[in-house]
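We emphasize that the prediction below concerns an isolated chain of 479 residues; any contacts that depend on oligomerization or on bound cofactors are therefore not represented. The input was used exactly as deposited, without trimming of termini.
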Amino acid sequence: MTRTVEYDVVVLGAGPTGENVAGRARDAGLSVAVVESELVGGECSYWACMPSKALLRPVVARADARRVPGLRQAVDGPLDVAAVLAHRDAYTSHWKDDGQVAWIDSIGARLYRGHGRLHGPRRVVVDGPEGEHHVLTARHAVAVCTGSRPALPELPGLAGAKAWTSREATSAQAVPGRLAIVGGGVVAVEMATVWQALGSRVTLLIRGAGALPRMEPFAGEQVLASLVEAGVDVRTGVSVAALVRDGDGGPVTVVLEGSDKFEADEVLLATGRAPRTDDIGLETVGLEPGGWLPVDDSLRVTGSDWLYGVGDVNHRALMTHQGKYQARIAGDAIAARAAGAEATETGRWGAHAATADHAAAPQVVFTDPEVGAVGLTLADAERAGHRVRAVDQDLTSVAGSGLYADGYRGHARIVVDLDREILLGATFVGPGVGELLHSATVAVAGEVPVDRLWHAVPAYPTISEIWLRLLEAYREDQG
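Result of the prediction step, given as a token string:
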């Protein structure tokens, strides 16, 4: 049976981004349909942020405890693998989405289960799981919030190898004896941290010279050094040539370029992300299927007055918190335009401009040590033509680090725009530094002058006192 229903807004994808677009639109009094082909809550809730951080938390907490006198003896032993996995399962709601479905119902939006495709301007066709066929039309906007998926390399033997992606790595119910991880980004180093601590023998294969290539070089260096200390076999400057699985459940032979090879029980390919836009009908509105969606700062697709690309699909900042930020911007812009606003606030830092994607997008890597970064790296700032200075400090220069843990190791850097005397970026590496990041984000996003930051006094004795050391060093450099 085919039904045609009209809404003010149709949202494709019910992950955190789609949920937030729907919520903002409903807050403005607009009628909303949400279309989802998998679990409501999306990648973050079931295969990314939530399960990965649930797996990482006991690993990092144990590492921290082992550095505290009087406590290390109490945690001298292996992790309880069953309890760690059960904790992870609880945080994914055991891969059931009842709670998030209830939330969509509670805001008065209508959920359509099934695969949604654009079918011309302002029109979405949904094929339901039991043969239902719905045609949804949008008075004001269609928001594409379908996210991203793992991008897999073209390798001989890939199909037969049944390699893990991030989904399998965060949802596995048993620890592999030997795990090969291909990649050097966030997923690769976080999953190496988890599975090594849970008892797997991990080999990390990185094509480039180091890990976390989009961050300051010292971040990847310290994370890799810690992984090596934990027992991970880290190999840089290597490329995988082929994968060969021995039988249905046998080991995988990982063949490297140059003919070197070794065996693993599972292989995780953490080699990047691709947009989930290949089968959503983009061709019916003149766009290339399978590509990233080009958008303006209000998240409206270039050349359209009704189509929005929000979250991972626009490739601006592939992080859940940035997708939710974009959703708040897009939802408010859709509502303003629906109300007939003559102009939306799309100027720099306007209410309808996702400026932080360019200038102040924060990210935490939950390894041991943690990495927290916001804004531009030194190299990025120099490439952009800014006249900058990097100020570096060892985190052991503050009393709070020694109290946090014996043998604390960490590093901090701020990147200062010398012409405007504001911060363009900041990076911290060390145990617990994720909680330092929001202060840096406020400084970067708020363009707080350095001489004003001098009056933001950090509490003693905390690791936050590194701000004082950084600002002192900058003032000394300036003479």
